[in-house]
Design a protein that fits this description.
Layout: H1 6-10, E1 21-25, E2 48-52, E3 58-62, H2 64-80
Antiparallel strand pairs: 1-2, 2-3
C-alpha cells in the first residue's frame, strides 16, 4: 500500500476484529543518494504495526524488531486460526 503524503500513513486506522488484517508502517532507512540525511544514524520515523483477527486476537508493536516479531506472530496465528470468535470461558463453577 502506498501513501501519497506523510499524513496518510499516520492516520491509517488499526485493524479491528470486525475489520481484520494487519497494518504495518515501516519508513525507509536508506534515503536518496543526494539527501544529506542519508548518512545520519537517526531514523526518519519509528516503525509500528497492529493486527486484529476475526477471532478477537489483537496485537500492536513499535520499533523494527517489535514489528518483525508481530508480523511473524500474525502469520503463525493466521495459519492455525479458524477465524471464528473465541467464546469467553465461564469463570464460575457449574452447579
Amino acid at each position: 500500500m502506498g501513501f501519497r503524503n506523510s499524513q496518510a500513513r499516520h492516520s491509517t486506522p488499526d485493524p479491528t476484529p470486525d475489520e481484520p488484517g494487519i497494518r504495518i508502517y515501516a519508513p525507509p532507512i536508506y534515503r536518496d543518494h543526494w539527501d544529506g540525511a542519508r548518512w545520519w544514524k537517526q531514523h526518519g520515523d519509528t516503525p509500528n504495526a497492529a493486527y486484529a483477527c476475526a477471532c478477537g486476537l489483537t496485537g500492536t508493536a513499535t520499533g523494527a524488531e517489535g514489528v518483525a516479531a508481530l508480523a511473524a506472530e500474525y502469520a503463525a496465528h493466521k495459519s492455525a486460526c479458524t477465524g471464528t470468535p473465541v467464546t469467553p470461558l465461564e469463570r464460575r463453577a457449574a452447579a
